[in-house]
Design a protein that fits this description.
alpha+beta, two-stranded antiparallel ribbon, about 40% helix, elongated
């Protein structure tokens, strides 16, 4: 998709171009998340269920790490920070 442009109205409103709406399946009444990243505005469709949306995120990071080992290390680091 090539770059799309929008114009900000006097009431500081914008319309999401139809090409973007179709590609992201955005419908009237949907809620978008507004994220500011490095001087840019990023609009993201808000997931209906954050738990389902985030399930499995970065699973490659946790492969091969036993859960009990990870939890033990985290608890040890928390306890060490309380001693400081």
């Amino acid at each position: 998709m090539s770059s799309l442009t929008v114009k900000v109205s006097k009431r500081f409103q914008i319309a999401v171009p139809s090409a973007a709406r179709e590609r992201l399946n955005i419908r009237s009444g949907d809620t978008l998340i507004v994220d500011i990243q490095d001087g840019m505005i990023v609009l993201l469709p808000r997931p209906e269920n954050y738990t389902d949306h985030l399930a499995g995120l970065h699973r490659e990071i946790w492969q091969g790490i036993p859960v009990d080992h990870y939890i033990r290390e985290e608890r040890d680091s928390w306890e060490a920070s309380l001693e400081d």
